[in-house]
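Quick illustration, no need to memorize.
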Amino acid sequence: MGTTGSPHYPRLFSPWTVGEVGVPNRIVLSPMTTGFGFEQGAPNRQLIDYFEARISDVGMAVVAFGAVSPEGRVEQQVPWMWRDDAADRLAPLAAAIDDAGTVPCLQLGHGGRQVSPVVIGEDPVAPSTLKATAHVRRTPRELTTDEAGGVVAAFASAAAKAAEAGFRAVELHAAHGYLIHQFLSAEANRRQDEYGGSTTAARSRFGSKIVAAIKDAAPDVALLVRINGSDLTAAGATVGDARAAASEFEAAGADGLVVSAGVYGSVPYTIPLFDDPEGIFIDLAASVREVVSVPVVAVGRITDPAAAESALNEERCDAVAVGRALLADPEWATKSRHGHTADIRPCIGTVEGCAGMLQHGDPISCSVNPDVGREATARPEPGVLNGSVLVIGGGVAGMEAARTAARLGAGVTLVEKSGELGGALRLAAATPPLRHLAGLAGWYERQLDRLGVEVRLHTEAGPSLVEAAKSDHLIVATGAATEVPVLDGYDLLPVWTLESMLGGEPSSTGSTQLPIRIAVLGNGRRALAMTLWVGDRGREAVAVTGGRAGVDTSGLARRALIDRVAQADTFIDEAAPLRVTPQGLEVLRNGEVHLLECDGVVIADPTRPERPRWLADSAEEPIVIGDAREPRGIGPAIAEARDAVRALSAAG
């Protein structure tokens, strides 16, 4: 249940009030669209399970994006608030959250020009006939003044239904480039009627009318308004605009504000990524808080309870919204309350398992927690796996297999040929955008130690070791290695694989000195991260991709990596490598051969499974998981490891 009081983080677990609604502590589960859990706009058992799994010790939980009208849906898997029976359909979800001692809150929104015609079956609507800055490229239809008034009424009606359903708070989405934000934006709003204007205060009128209408329709419900502290674009709203809008919304009746940032296409993004800092938008919340008297909730990569406690103690915000950290570890709040922060499974910020899935029309999961969306069925009871398990390989798949097996009751031995656990995680953590992955490797080490897994480092597995172990189950998770393409001239310049470069090994010519100009071969995330590693050391770097860069990651992560390459004064060349020469790398670009001058080459992609050769002759029938089965990435490796071990327990 939502809990007050903690000796470890007393401010974080202290009560607060928004409007007339008391909240037991200052942790807010952020609204996140899931891509699952709704049937024709009604939440089903899967969504209730999802919330129940992660609201223990959370003060308020926000259900994402209740669409106030059909043309306002950003996707299908959201509450449909225009339906007459919306209150009855949402009541079980509100009751489940409330029964846990957590304040249920429903976000209300309209996507405006950022709604895909594929979702709604018609052209999107907007304040003016100006296209969205990214993703949705259809020219929207301009709302008439009467239609804009109808949208105001739709928000009020939706809020009344939310109150009837049992939600004690609503969050009005006026950020991230959605409809209310479009009215606020000078870039998107060129209207000449009462909803336009040359100042932020004038363009706030649409949102202010919605605030007032909601307070009239649902006076007992606390009303939070989510705004952008900055659009993070050249022509977008600034923190000064945010302060002006916040004052207008407070005057209209808002009980609190949630301060986020970014729009579709902005850099950084509405969802912080990779090496974006902890609490990236808290300064924006602090600035807005200076001009209002209502509570302000901060958002944006809040994963560390100590950092949240500091922000609260410094009065930079009044509460913190935690999103992806509660996907990665549903017990984030409970572990924080009891001071067990070292046991919190870290969010790694790649968004490949969460928001990146939505871009493909798939439901979210989580790279480090594949049980997201399957909370009711995915967790066998401890003690159901008898016998012993031998895991070969200490990368992320091997560590997850060992952890899961030990939690289910097996005796587990993990052998790793190198001197540390982590495998590809450790390699990735050596590169600038992925340094935080070392935290995940460290978390696994602590979990294995706590669970009593026997870890043998500097141990090469072979037939004799397997035979001596006499384990009941053999799991092979030996990872993948760079596949060296067939090119002439590897003896003419220093050439490394990614593994040999990051491992400090000699090049193909025996050189150990880092060249001045380096070409990095590969079109995946490894190549882009390696390019940043080279640039971070003051060397000239170019990723030679042979086509589109970042093909093996989500669109959000791809754009983030490409942006970081550009900001680091490193480069991407989509030419195809042909051969290494003493002067550099010959490449094929636009049908012509060119020389890319460089002093060294690093091969980063592709990778191939790396399995012990003796396995082919072994009498054992191992379970092969992770990149040893097929190179993919962290999320699939963890999911496959967990599911493989659970299958053993199910088989008895």
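The radius of gyration is 26 Å.
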